[in-house]
Amino acid sequence: MVYHRKPTWFIPEGQATAESAFVNRRQLLASMGLGGAASALLAGRANAAQPGDSFTPTPERNPDYGIGEGRAMTDEKVASTYNNFYEFGSHKQIWQKAQALDTDGWTIKIDGDVEKDMVVDADDLIAKMPVEERVTRHRCVEAWSMVVPWVCFPLAELVKMAKPTSKAKYVQFETFLDPKVASGQRQGWYPWAYTEALTIEEATNSVALMVVGAYGKVLPKQFGAPMRLHVPWKYGFKSAKSISRITFTETRPVSFWEEINKAEYGFWANVNPDVDHPRWTQATERVIGTDERIPTLKFNGYGEEVAGLYSDALAAKEKDRLWR
Ligand code: MTE
To answer: How far is the CA of 261 from the centre of ligand 1 (A)?
Structure first.
């Protein structure tokens, strides 16, 4: 990852002068007027900062998004060793297997109902975005939750850059497809590649995030390096990892889990303690890394920002909004 470069002269923490004393090589190239592809070519990728390296420059925490009373940050070790990433196995301990994913030189295709299709270099994209830290509540449909300090930028910024046409009503996010690396993708009964989608209104809501790091580090692979979605008011399965394609569409896409079982993993999937999953309650959640079980909040506590997106659905149709 060029933006978060670990230079050739990198000295381990403790022996080093403050990192901020060094000039970022990309910034240097940019100041010479060499942007994007040219700078990537000149800089080479051999020294690119890797998932798990310190994220530099240190992103500032956005104070406008809190986590509410009684919640504490989940321990980094706990959060980064308990992950859902079916590409590497259908259990939570995939973090070691996920290290096989090669994120160097990662590109993302942007297509569909946009002014012009494009392929963007992930590093270049991140360098252009207003990166910040946001601490959010992360609630899985399986009724567990954690609180994570993400390094991220508003998804709305990416939508703006993509220039969708007036036809675009939805945006679909697609994960990489490489069964050689991801053993889970050799299991043919899943409809790979993993996809998820949002309406344009959801994608441009200020709470929707594109995540590029966690706990002050370049996004570790098990979290979905180099770039994953995080939609804090929806169940975690909406937040597709390791995104390689973003497609704007007029019609509503059918997502990975929706195709597998739409009665359990519907399109809307807004966190709602009043609507149980067909096989378990959603009224409470287990806080990972603790013995606690706490009440689940509607929209996972983000109702003030997002409830308006669903105002036409409140009352009778609400259930449909969640599961179909
Ligand atoms: N994205 C991909 N590509 N593959 C997955 O299996 N799992 C989803 C989501 N994104 C998944 C994915 C589910 S079910 C959840 S709860 C979250 O990722 C988990 O994110 P975390 O491991 O960072 O906690």
So the answer is: 16
**Structure pTM?**
0.86
pLDDT digits (tens, 9 = 90+) for 117-141: 999 999 999 999 999 999 999 999 9
What's the token pair of residue 160? 């703006």
Give pLDDT, residue 317.
Answer: 52
Instruction: Calculate how far, in angstroms, residue 239's C-alpha sits from the geometric centre of ligand 1.
Output: 6
Ligand 1: which atom is nearest the Cα of residue 85?
Answer: 6
Ligand 1 first shell, C-beta below 6 A: 83-87, 138, 140, 175, 194, 223-224, 236-237, 239-242
CB-neighbour burial class of residue 70 (10 A; exposed 0-12, middle 13-18, buried 19+): exposed
Nearest CA to ligand 1 atom 19: 84
Q: What is the pLDDT of residues 198-233, one digit of tens each?
A: 999 999 999 999 999 999 999 999 999 999 999 999
**Which atom from ligand 1 is nearest to the alpha carbon of 138?**
24
Rounded to whole angstroms, the Cα distance separating 209 from 207 reads 6
Cβ-contact 48, 104 below 8 angstroms: yes
In the chain, what are the domains?
A: 13-317 (3.90.420.10)
Please compute, for residue 160, the number of CA atoms within 13 A of its CA located in the half-sphere on the CB side: 11
